[in-house]
Design goal:
The protein is of the alpha/beta class and 238 residues long. The protein folds into two domains: 22-132, Oxidized Rhodanese, domain 1; 140-236, 3-Layer(aba) Sandwich (Glutaredoxin), CATH 3.40.30.10. It is 46% helix and 20% strand. The chain is built from ten helices and eleven strands. The strands form three sheets. Strands 1-6-5-2-4 form a five-stranded parallel β-sheet. The protein has a four-stranded mixed β-sheet with strand order 9-8-10-11, covered by helices on one side. Strand 8 (152-158), helix 8 and strand 9 form a beta-alpha-beta unit. The chain is elongated.
Length: 238
C-alpha cells in the first residue's frame, strides 16, 4: 500500500513538472540567430518588433522593424496593428524587454511570437542586414591596424544602453591604470561603430571582451566575470 502511494506521488510530481515545462515552453520561445533569421526570411512581410527605446531604435535597428515595448505610450495601438495570426519577431539590446513583450503577446492571443537570443548584439554582431543613421567612427581597416600596431590589445564591445556593459567600465579603468602603456584598450560601442561590429562577425551578446597578443586572440569572453584575473594571467605569461 505504501509503495503504491509513493508510486502515485512520484507520478503526480512528474506530471506537474511536465505541465510546468510545457507551459514555460508555450509562453517563451527564444530563438537562436539562425532560426530567427530563417523564420523571418520565410515570411513575405515579416512582423519584426524592436522592443528598445525610440532613441535606441533611431540609431540602429533591423531593417523593416517597428518600434514599441511594454512601456510605450502607444502600446495598445501598436499591438492592434499586428496580425495575431502571423508570427511576430521581437528583439531588444539583450533578451529582457523582448522576452517580456513576447510573453505578453502570446498571453493575449497571438499565435506565434519569438524573441532573439542575444538581441541586436547577436544580429549586428554576426553581420545580418541592419539600418544605421550614422557612419561608424571606427572602420574594420582601422581596427586591424590597431591590432597590428600594438603588441597587446583589449577590445571591449558593447552599448551605452546595456546595463552589463556599464559594469565593465570600472574594471577597464583598473586594468588601464595598472598596465598603462603595456596594454592598449579599445572600447567599441554599437551607437558609434555598428559596422565594425558587423564586419568582425564575432559578437553574440554585449558585452564581449577580446584580448589580442601579437595579432592573435588570447581569449574572448562574454561578460566581466574574472576579466581582471584573465588579463593578469595573459600578461604575466607573455
Amino acid at each position: 500500500m505504501k509503495n503504491q502511494i509513493l508510486k502515485n506521488s512520484i507520478t503526480a510530481i512528474a506530471f506537474l513538472w511536465a505541465v510546468a515545462a510545457f507551459s514555460q515552453n508555450e509562453i517563451h520561445s527564444s530563438l537562436s540567430l539562425d532560426s530567427f533569421y530563417s523564420k523571418i526570411k520565410s515570411q513575405k512581410n515579416p512582423q519584426i518588433v524592436d522592443a528598445r527605446t525610440p532613441e535606441e531604435f533611431a540609431l540602429n535597428h533591423i531593417e523593416g522593424a517597428v518600434n514599441f515595448n511594454l512601456q510605450s505610450e502607444n502600446y495598445a495601438q501598436a499591438v492592434a496593428k499586428l496580425d495575431k495570426s502571423k508570427p511576430v519577431f521581437i528583439y531588444s539590446i539583450g533578451a529582457g524587454r523582448s522576452v517580456a513583450l513576447e510573453k505578453e503577446l502570446l498571453k493575449n492571443g497571438f499565435s506565434e511570437a519569438y524573441s532573439l537570443e542575444g538581441g541586436i548584439a547577436n544580429w549586428i554582431g554576426n553581420g545580418k542586414p541592419f539600418y544605421s543613421n550614422l557612419k561608424s567612427k571606427l572602420s574594420l581597416a582601422e581596427f586591424n591596424k590597431i591590432i597590428a600596431d600594438n603588441k597587446t590589445v583589449l577590445i571591449d564591445i558593447g552599448s551605452k544602453y546595456c546595463g552589463a556593459c556599464k559594469k565593465v567600465k570600472p574594471v577597464l579603468e583598473t586594468i588601464r591604470s595598472e598596465y598603462a602603456s603595456n596594454l592598449k584598450i579599445v572600447e567599441i560601442e554599437l551607437e558609434d561603430s555598428p559596422q565594425v561590429i558587423a564586419d568582425l562577425k564575432t559578437v553574440k551578446v554585449f558585452p564581449t571582451l577580446i584580448l589580442y597578443q601579437n595579432g592573435k586572440i588570447v581569449f574572448k569572453k562574454e561578460g566581466i566575470n574574472d576579466l581582471k584575473s584573465e588579463v593578469d594571467v595573459a600578461l604575466a605569461s607573455k
